[in-house]
UniProtKB/TrEMBL annotation:
GO function terms (MF aspect): protein-L-isoaspartate (D-aspartate) O-methyltransferase activity
Organism: Aureimonas populi
Keyword annotations of the record: Methyltransferase, Transferase
Source organism superkingdom: Bacteria
Coiled coil: none
Similarity comment text for this entry: Belongs to the methyltransferase superfamily. L-isoaspartyl/D-aspartyl protein methyltransferase family.
Protein name, UniProt field: Protein-L-isoaspartate O-methyltransferase
InterPro entries noted in UniProt: PCMT, SAM-dependent_MTases_sf
GO terms for biological process, alphabetical: methylation
SUPFAM superfamilies (alphabetical): S-adenosyl-L-methionine-dependent methyltransferases (SSF53335)
Length: 213
């Protein structure tokens, strides 16, 4: 759609003015049609706002997703774990950037719908699993990069144990209600360093696998 092309161009200009992002990430943004992932009837899919998803979940704005993905500093050989597949938009960007992506979501409905979208884009390096991601996912470890799409009060030890060294984990840390801080955790050997990146507001990460949805 012509409107989408114009909105994408404007979005890329906004992101370039806000952050210094790698060329590979901009290429991934252009290759992944966000329209495929948002609810029907949205005029500007790159608007700086969140959108509703099935199962009571929320899809972050494109700017929020891109900023979180950029913070991971994904390399072409990166093995990535994503917690909270949602619509699959961030998953698609990660699939364009890294070597292997394992993405978990507690809602099978979201996993099935995201799988169809990612398959239509020909992304064969992405594995989607309907699974509780509150303690990571041991079968695919170790991971060079971990992205948690949901707020947590503290990073569980399991995630740090599943990280390769060197490795990076990005997540929002803070209370379920109110403001959180987007943080980047670096692992180097037995050392962990934490960077505070930005204030955010996001849904809390929910434990367990949904019984029905």
């Amino acid at each position: 759609m012509e409107r989408d092309r114009e909105d994408l161009a404007a979005f890329i200009l906004r992101m370039r003015s806000r952050e210094s992002l790698p060329v590979r990430l901009f290429e991934a943004i252009e290759q992944v049609p966000r329209r495929l992932f948002v609810p029907k009837g949205i005029a500007n899919v790159y608007a700086d706002q969140s959108f509703p998803l099935p199962c009571g979940e929320t899809m972050p704005s494109a700017a929020r997703v891109v900023s979180a993905v950029a913070a991971l500093k994904v390399q072409p050989d990166s093995r990535i774990l994503e917690i909270g597949t949602g619509s699959g938009y961030a998953t698609a960007l990660l699939g364009r950037l890294g070597a292997r992506v394992v993405s978990l979501d507690r809602y099978r409905t979201l996993v099935d719908e995201a799988r169809e979208r990612l398959s239509s884009l020909g992304l064969v390096n992405v594995t989607l699993v309907p699974e509780d991601g509150s303690e990571g996912y041991g079968p695919g470890a170790p991971y060079d990069r971990i992205l948690i799409n949901g707020a947590i009060e503290a990073v569980p030890r399991a995630f740090l144990d599943q990280m390769a060294s060197p490795g990076i984990l990005v997540c929002a840390v803070g209370p379920a209600e109110g403001e959180q801080v987007l943080t980047r955790h670096h692992k180097a050997g037995s050392r962990f360093e934490t960077e505070l990146l930005a204030s955010v507001r996001t849904q809390a990460l929910k434990p367990g696998v949904a019984a029905v949805l």
